[in-house]
Amino acid sequence: MNKNEKILKEQEKKIESQKVKINQLKQKVDGFERETFDQFVSLLIYSFGFVAALFWRDAIQTSLNHFFSVSELQANYWIIQLGIAIAVTAFAAFTIFFLNRMKSRKD
Question: What does the pLDDT read at residue 82?
């Protein structure tokens, strides 16, 4: 084996070593991307739950006000808020379901 062949083999070993390091870095980046995606989906899910809870808080508060002190201007307002709370809850539940399916498919 001459000197050039030895140098060539050493270079090939270095290249293989670099390929292994590159693959390890790719795996770390993929893991980071996956974790970021999971955290983002979780944030969206919790946000929808929070928004639905706020609408329910308003609907319940208005309903209680309606039953204990009714003015003519607010007579149907509690029904509207209750309907909005139901609609927002349905939308949030559908969106949460969709996001969870999307998250599980990515696994």
Answer: 80
**pTM confidence score:** 0.48
Who contacts 106 (Cβ-Cβ below 8 Å, separation ≥6)?
Answer: 34, 37
> Domains in the chain: how many in total?
1
Inter-CA distances, 25 with 16, 48, 53, 58, Å? 14, 35, 42, 50
Per-residue b or e along 73-106, where b marks 16 or more CB atoms closer than 10 Å to that residue's CB:
eeeeebeebbeebeebbeebeeebeebeeebeee
Domain containing residue 56: 3-106
58 and 49 Cβ atoms separated by less than 8 Å = no
